[in-house]
Design goal:
- The chain folds into 2 domains: 31-139, no CATH class; 183-327.
- Helices cover 58% and strands 15% of the residues.
- The protein is built from 12 helices and 6 strands.
- The chain has helices spanning 2-27, 61-68, 103-111, 142-181, 184-191, 193-199, 208-221, 225-241, 251-262, 269-277, 287-310, 312-327, and strands spanning 36-46, 52-59, 77-85, 91-96, 117-126, 131-136.
- It has a 6-stranded antiparallel beta barrel.
- The protein is elongated.
- The relative contact order is 0.07.
Length: 328
Amino acid sequence: MLNYVWISLLLIGIFTAVGRDINDEVTNTYRNGVPLTSHFESHRKLAAVHPAIEGDIVIPAALFNQFYNISSAKADVRQPATMTTLSSGKQRLEIKISDASPVFWQEMAKAAGGKEKLEADINSFNDGKQEITFTLEKVRYVKIKAVTKAALDFADTAVTISLGLIGVMALWLGIMKVGEAAGLLEQLTKLMTPITRQLFPDVPPNHPAVAAMIMNIAANMFGLNNAATPMGLKAMEELNKLNPKAGTATNAMCTFLVVNTAGLTLIPATAIAIRAGLGSADPGMIIGTSIFGAGCATFGGLVAVKLLQRLPKYKKEMEVTETEEKNG
């Protein structure tokens, strides 16, 4: 089911991006092919293979907003630029883009290939009046490019994080396997029997579901979320064998789901590994807050599920189910 959700979200993102790009083409949002007239305050000539002049492009805020039909520019636009005369005699303008540049131009520069500049053809230049008319390079398919880039970037991030988790997962899974072979699982089950009896009074103490739930809870306590999943599924499978009516969650199932979802954590190993992989200076600083947050979530969830189990509506439904099972 989750796969269908992801593919639906991806398709929605793609269709939305394509729709926005079509709208940009129809309305010519980025003013492709439309010349813009502004001031060019020259500073100095550069000694290069081809003659070049450094200066600043100055565009009044009102003119900038009117040209692009926006209202984001609050101050006059002043951008460093270089005007170059090519060997063919054609003049080109290179506008440097930085964090101080108008947001609209920053987006255009990213869409033009992630460059820190915008390039334009110079239509005319009047040195005496310091007036220049130029046409910026065409910008197209901005949204679909952004969606594609984001998909690739997050795929790369997912692979990086997954590789970083291999060591931690292998370590703790190995420890748990050794503990199981050494009989620690049986001892842990006996140790936690008083707690499981209180939390799951409908489940026999020696039922396989108890061992699976304990393993799942232990894995969550050590922050091994992925490692806990198989045991969680096994626990639900065993609990379902005690279910008098298939398709309806029992009290034990609901209680286990609350404990599993709240994820009481003593050592958030997965989160620590992710923080370490992303270069955190102190990956383990989240241990205290993780314990407190997960503890509050577990306590609140258990209180809620136990209260709901006592409500007449749910107790009546369970009694009806048990009666149907006996008569069936």
